[in-house]
Amino acid sequence: MPQRSDWSDQPCPIARGINVVGDPWTLLILREALSGARRFDEFKRRVGASDNILAARLAAMVADGLLVQRPYSQGDRPRQEYVPTGAAADALPILHAYAAWSHAHRPSSTEEPVFTVSCRTCGHSTDRVEFCDNCGAALEVGNVVWARPGRWQGRAVNLSAGGPPGVDQGRA
């Protein structure tokens, strides 16, 4: 996927990060990968991207170390699933920060109920990005539940501590 600009060699870490997670489709795909989507058709249904956009973003996310490809069928037409890496799990605070910023500065008049982030340790919702504001527990992939509005309401980031099943723990 060609970038509008290549900031991969910039001294600023924000600029370098934009090269990897700055694309809106990438953030939506990352959201779904952390929520359990693994297959092309799942991502397509959940994010609504066209085939060519989705294929390009998935390939870029594999190249950038956010996802790894694993075969899930054999035969005449082998298929691949996309599994989030440790680098993808480490991006969870970015998604939380986007959600918090959007609630504060771009509220939706139709969103009932709202997107919430809850801590599995204490069960309370939190407005913090990395730690629960009620009990102080780390908001990591294995300790977070997302309550999402609309058709995805209640879908959780339900990944086990120490690495979710099927998640590649390598760091990109």
General description of the model:
With 172 residues, the chain is an alpha+beta fold. The strands form 2 sheets. Strands 4-3-5 form a 3-stranded antiparallel β-sheet, with no helix packed on it. Strand 3 and strand 4 form a beta hairpin.
Q: Which structural class matches the secondary elements?
A: alpha+beta
Taking all Cα atoms into account, the compactness measure Rg is 16 Å
Helical percentage? 25-40%
What is the CATH architecture assignment of the largest domain? Orthogonal Bundle
Spatial sequence of strands, sheet with the most strands: 4-3-5
Question: Count the helices. How many?
Answer: 6
Chain-averaged pLDDT: 83
Shape: globular
Can you identify the CATH superfamily of the largest domain? Answer: Winged helix-like DNA-binding domain superfamily/Winged helix DNA-binding domain
User: CATH topology of the largest domain, which one?
Assistant: Arc Repressor Mutant, subunit A
- Assigned CATH class of the largest domain: Mainly Alpha
Q: Please report the total strand number as a whole number.
A: 5
Question: How many structural domains are formed by the residues?
Answer: 2
Distance between the termini: 18 Å
Helix-strand pattern, N to C? HHHHEEHHEEE
